[in-house]
Amino acid sequence: MKFNDLYKSVFAILRIEGNQAKIVGTGFVINTNPIYIITCNHVVSEASENNDGSIKYSLTKRSDSFEAFDIRNAKISFLAAKKIICKPEFDLAILEIDPNINKEIANQLDIDNIRYLELSFDEVDREFGSSVEWLSTAASGDLSLTPRFFKGNLVTNYIADK
């Protein structure tokens, strides 16, 4: 997958409490109708299911260009999650996004052109202990969103649609 295509599938997750906001992680589009973004549960662990608590979560990304990750001086827009489903036992969470909540922001984030992340692995690549590599921002408030490269091994099996 090319970076420009991947960029259409990835968003930064913004944690908002009062008038304070910080980027706490990233999420990937896994479905486009309705829009679902998957992330780690620890990224949104303080969420309420309807995203209506004192801490709220939104999606953001650079609105002006995808050539750099650093958003400190970039134009950004954010769109609140409509619903958040947390599965702490798997460290997974899914954010449901409704672009109709704010069409102007949805247009700035280019929601109409998002793509779901397509992953495909041979069965042997999904076996317990198989090597994996991934990019993560490990953001925790780092507005540079500098991607970091990690290597590891699968610690669980998963089922894939065939």
Task: Enter the CATH topology name.
Answer: Thrombin, subunit H
pLDDT < 50 stretches: none
Mean pLDDT comes to: 77
Major sheet details = 7 strands, antiparallel
Determine the structural class based on helices, strands and strand pairing.
Answer: mainly beta
Highest CATH level, the class: Mainly Beta
Helix-strand string: HEEEEEEEHEE
Query: What's the tally of helices?
Result: 2
CATH superfamily: Trypsin-like serine proteases
The main sheet orders its strands as 5-4-1-2-3-7-6
Kindly report how far apart the N and C termini lie.
Answer: 20 Å
Explained architecture:
The protein is mostly beta strands. It has a single domain, classed as Trypsin-like serine proteases (Thrombin, subunit H), CATH 2.40.10.10. The longest helix is centred in the middle third of the chain and has 6 residues, at 103-108. The strands form two sheets. It has a seven-stranded antiparallel beta sheet with strand order 5-4-1-2-3-7-6. The protein has a two-stranded antiparallel sheet with strand order 8-9. The chain has helices spanning 3-7, 103-108, and strands at residues 10-17, 20-32, 35-39, 55-62, 76-80, 83-87, 92-97, 131-136, 148-153. The protein starts with a helix and ends in a 9-residue tail after the last strand. The protein has two helices and nine strands; from the N terminus they run αβββββββαββ.
